[in-house]
Design brief:
397 residues, Alpha-D-Glucose-1,6-Bisphosphate, Chain A, domain 4, 7-stranded antiparallel β-sheet, 2 domains, 13 helices
Length: 397
């Protein structure tokens, strides 16, 4: 450490899919700070540094349903982790920055260990429960930990993703006032450049400034209210309000339209219907499938690979089945370690002349953070469906 300066460890505490990378890059724009970009992943997260990934990401926990990395009861070997990070940080810089979403569960332990080797500071952030990808249950759990962090840690400042998007310069000023050693921060920071690369849905444009991407659909707000209504105190603590129909907050929301797609397919309705419910047809445009094609029956689809451990299965159950006319089903949008919302998909079929079908698809309960991905996903799937059911393309059964 040059000049005998006492270093400061600065930790970003923020749930996944809530703008943590934007905040991290803003802090890393300081010429007096060193982050972990380039050491294992584009987002520069300490949990992905190769020397500690096995303990931070793969360590089992007491509950087999969740990984040890997201279970606060699992103790991390902080001495080993600190040494690995210090081999990656530029130790000539006075401020050493790290962000890994699971660390918001372990902030007191981090404070206890790292304070023996330098000053420890935390920047905490949350995002509206109506716009994040996580299910309300997970948002509530993480928000409880975050409330504990901002009320009990010795040196902490907090903000919201919405405040960062609304006035990044003001947030930057608060951060430098909180930790003057940072010096100047660049509030026009984007996601491009040499620091990492790779855009993330719901975060800023790759080479542009931080921009707000809020909004949700009405159906998603109503769905999330079922769990959030019992936790209004937690919402108010972070400056949010329950969105209830008829309220002032409800009326001024920038609501997103439900995703609706239409397509004319070169096959009769009966054939198209079979492609949605018959396992012999489903496997042609989804990969591995498991289907119980009854109302209330469950299905699982593996569209992204085989048995290599990387496939993200889509699961759900059928809510309505009207042969040749209508299919309605839930769609569990869990991806990897993240438990997302159960969307509802409605598919209606109508005859469109000799041997053709007019298909209408509606995807309900979609948040802004994965709205565009969701729409593009179904556009691609409808093209694949056309290839499967086309009169001269698919095989007859």
């Amino acid at each position: 450490m040059s000049g005998g300066r006492r270093r400061t460890y600065l930790f970003v505490l923020c749930p996944a899919f809530s703008g943590s990378t934007v905040l991290y890059r803003l802090l890393a724009s300081s010429r007096h700070a060193s982050a972990l970009f380039g050491h294992g992943n584009w987002a520069g997260e300490g949990q992905f540094v190769p020397a500690v990934r096995s303990v931070m990401r793969r360590q089992p926990g007491p509950d087999p349903r969740i990984g040890g990395w997201e279970d606060p009861r699992v103790t991390m070997p902080w001495a080993r982790i600190r040494r690995a990070w210090e081999r990656c940080w530029d130790l000539s810089k006075p401020v050493l920055i790290e962000k890994s979403p699971p660390n918001l569960l372990r902030a007191p332990a981090i404070e206890g260990h790292f304070s023996r080797y330098g000053d420890v500071r935390f920047v905490a952030m949350v995002r509206s429960p109506y716009c994040v990808r996580q299910r309300p249950r997970l948002w509530i759990e993480e928000a409880r930990h975050q409330r504990r962090n901002v009320t009990t840690l010795r040196h902490v400042v907090w903000t919201t993703y919405e405040a960062l998007c609304a006035d990044a310069a003001a947030v930057a000023d608060r951060l430098t006032g909180f930790l003057p050693a940072l010096g100047r921060l660049d509030p026009a920071i984007g996601q491009g450049g040499d620091a990492g690369g790779g855009a993330s849905v719901g975060e800023p444009d790759r080479d542009g400034p931080i921009v707000a991407r809020g909004g949700t659909t009405r159906s998603l707000a109503l769905l999330r209210n079922r769990e959030l209504a019992a936790h209004e105190d937690l919402l108010r603590f972070f400056g949010y309000r329950l969105l209830t129909p008829g309220s002032e907050e409800w009326e001024r929301q920038p609501w997103l339209p439900e995703i609706e797609l239409r397509s004319t397919l070169s096959a009769p309705p009966a054939r198209v219907y079979r492609a949605w419910v018959d396992p012999r047809w489903l496997c042609r445009w989804w990969g591995r499938v498991r289907v119980d094609a009854r109302v209330g029956g469950e299905y699982s689809l593996h569209p992204y690979g085989g048995d290599d451990g990387r496939a993200f299965p889509l699961r759900g159950r059928y809510l309505a089945l009207e042969p040749g006319r209508r299919i309605r089903f839930t769609w569990d949008l869990s991806v990897g370690d993240y438990r997302l919302d159960d969307s509802t998909v409605e598919v209606e079929l109508r005859s469109a002349g000799t041997g053709c079908t007019e298909l209408s698809l509606r995807s309900l309960a979609v948040a802004r953070s994965w709205y565009d991905d969701n729409e593009e996903f179904w556009r691609r799937k409808l093209v694949e469906l056309e290839d499967v059911v086309a009169t001269n393309g698919g095989k007859e059964e």
